[in-house]
Amino acid sequence: MKTKTLYLYLFFLFLFNDGFAQHKTEIFIIGNIHDSVPNYNSGILFNILDDVKPDIILHEVDREGMEEYIKEANPKGNEIKASNLFIQKYPGTERLPFDFEGRNQYRRNMGMVPTDNLTVKLIDSLYKSKQLSRRETKNYRRFSELTGELMKIATLPPERFNNSHTDKIARKRQHYQYKELLKIVQNRKEFNENYVVKPDHEKISYREGFKRMSDFWDVRNKTMAKNIYNIAFANPNKKIVVLTGFLHRYYLIEELQKLNNSSFIIKEFYK
Known about the structure:
It contains eleven helices and seven strands. It is α/β, with parallel strands linked by helices. Helix 2 packs across helix 4 and helix 6 packs across helix 10.
């Protein structure tokens, strides 16, 4: 009799735990190409959303950007166009921002923009004119190779730029951009001699601007992951789709895994 009771107890315990797991919050982090291309457009993303049927869609914008995003008469980005189509079909779906607040203005005010792009252009110029050291040349070449590899992957179906293999490549590429290229910037005088003028009329060198952008890459991604976590915590037992650029995907997944206390599951849209 005791054995039968134990079996019944274990049976119902299994059912309870299995049912709980099935109703745990699900987070789908979908890495995107923002502009429409032959292999990826708003129609393809809409079909993905329609398969997942999320309760909440998170957009890679801040609160002000979200308001402008929704009000835009003729949106061009894949994410907002697909999101709008989904809302038309499922009007009860909630849409929320999850980005670093004031991202764009903050980067301009701090001199990260346009020094980030100008710095990479200067490195490229030094590379082409063979002025970089052997180690600097090797690191810049590797950065370019990884960038090219990701560009090729971005021409394939979305499953190909939403998987752990591509995440690893993206992680390496971003490491080279914000760690290895930064070493070139810090070691060469050219990046301290060139500067831009910030909105407050103060000068900032390429070196300092690129350093700030490198630091901000970590700050921004950790902030976005924390925002996603807070939204998931406040909305238990929901399906949440996170729409982000696919270079951010690996970072968000890693940070969410650190924050997770078994309250949610990170899933792929194609599984």
